[in-house]
């Protein structure tokens, strides 16, 4: 039987890292990051990675896994995360999945689809064509080919296009009809705050990122030879800085552009979690108001988790 695992999710800037850090002050915890951008080494400021002090005190997995430009998928995350969770248990630590990338969470919980065979030559040709297409056009193409396409970066759009064209069926069909078993059963904790509070937190985070050197971080990556369209640099925040450095966005408009894009991304995250979690992995879904102090929230979560019947793989508790 699959183990029940706490999974803390919510939109960017809602306070997930702070709550996980507070939980780690109550008992030994290993955080498994479910964030599609924190996997990239060197993308630190723009992905709001947990600070080095926290990572030195609390083990974190799923961070700094690959170099910018390397492909890293939800499938690879699901495989790796299952190993990280098992390792945490072996060390006597409580694994806690924390993140805002819904597709990563879904892959871990509900399993992956069995990928259909794709002709290598046609796939390479299609990828080359998609790589020079403007991201907005690529996203529209993906949406036309797959009515369930819910957006994302260039890599996700290109993936939706290639699977639809090379198999004759949409990626969402394969994900629904050819799915294998997931690795864990989730106990979801969804952090949420009123929209105006989230907007203030996003604005403050963007300002802090720019003050900490986000532009310098991107310049350094480009100087190392990382393609400006590479996986990782297509994320919110990074793509706006790239546009500014390439002269396509005035520097005076950078902060506002990142803030607006982050708000839009957070809205998509909220919509995804609201509609996708219930029924996913047969887990409970508990929503918490994250305007509370992180220490208060962590104690509530830890106490409720501890009340779940043991021994053996835990069973979900009723939601209130």
CATH topology of the largest domain: Rossmann fold
The CATH architecture of the largest domain can be given as 3-Layer(aba) Sandwich
Reading side by side through the largest sheet, how are the strands ordered? 3-2-4-1-5-6
CATH class of the largest domain: Alpha Beta
Share of helical residues: 40-55%
Average residue pLDDT = 90
End-to-end gap: 26 Å
Class by SSE composition:
alpha/beta
How would you explain this protein's 3D organization?
The chain has 320 residues and is α/β, with parallel strands linked by helices. It has two domains: 4-112 and 183-213 and 262-306, Rossmann fold (3-Layer(aba) Sandwich); 120-177, Histone, subunit A. It has 13 helices and six strands. It has helices at 16-24, 52-57, 74-90, 102-110, 120-131, 135-145, 154-167, 171-177, 195-212, 214-223, 238-245, 254-276, 294-306, and strands at 4-9, 29-33, 60-61, 94-99, 185-192, 285-289. Strands 3-2-4-1-5-6 form a six-stranded parallel β-sheet, sandwiched between helices. Helix 9 (195-212) crosses helix 12. The longest helix has 23 residues, at 254-276. The two termini are 26 Å apart.
How is this structure best summarized?
The chain is of the alpha/beta class. The protein has 13 helices and 6 strands.
């Amino acid at each position: 039987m699959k183990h029940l695992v706490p999974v803390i999710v919510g939109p960017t800037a809602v306070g997930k890292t702070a709550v996980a850090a507070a939980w780690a002050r109550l008992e030994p915890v290993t955080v498994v990051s479910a964030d599609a951008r924190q996997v990239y080494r060197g993308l630190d400021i723009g992905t709001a990675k947990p600070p080095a002090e926290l990572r030195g005190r609390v083990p974190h997995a799923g961070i700094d896994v690959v170099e910018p430009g390397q492909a890293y998928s939800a499938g690879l995350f699901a495989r790796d995360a299952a190993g990280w969770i098992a390792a945490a248990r072996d060390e006597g630590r409580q694994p806690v999945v924390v993140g805002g990338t819904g597709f990563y969470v879904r892959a871990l919980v509900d399993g992956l689809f069995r990928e259909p065979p794709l002709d290598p030559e046609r796939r390479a040709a299609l990828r080359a064509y998609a790589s020079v297409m403007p991201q907005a056009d690529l996203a529209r193409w993906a949406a036309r080919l797959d009515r369930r396409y819910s957006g994302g970066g260039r890599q996700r759009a290109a993936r939706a296009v290639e699977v639809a064209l090379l198999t004759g069926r949409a990626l969402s069909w394969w994900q629904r009809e050819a799915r294998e078993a997931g690795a864990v059963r989730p106990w979801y904790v969804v952090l949420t705050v009123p929209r105006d509070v989230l907007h203030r937190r996003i604005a403050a985070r963007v300002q802090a990122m720019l003050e900490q050197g986000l532009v310098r971080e991107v310049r350094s990556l480009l100087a190392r030879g990382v393609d400006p369209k590479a996986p990782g640099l297509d994320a919110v925040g990074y793509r706006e800085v790239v546009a500014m450095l390439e002269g396509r966005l005035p520097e005076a408009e950078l902060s506002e552009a990142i803030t607006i894009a982050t708000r839009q991304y957070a809205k998509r995250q909220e919509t995804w979690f609201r509609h996708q979690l219930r029924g996913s992995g047969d887990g409970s879904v508990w929503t918490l108001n994250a305007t509370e102090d992180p220490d208060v929230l962590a104690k509530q979560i830890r106490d409720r988790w501890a009340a779940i019947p043991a021994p053996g793989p835990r069973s979900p508790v009723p939601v209130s």
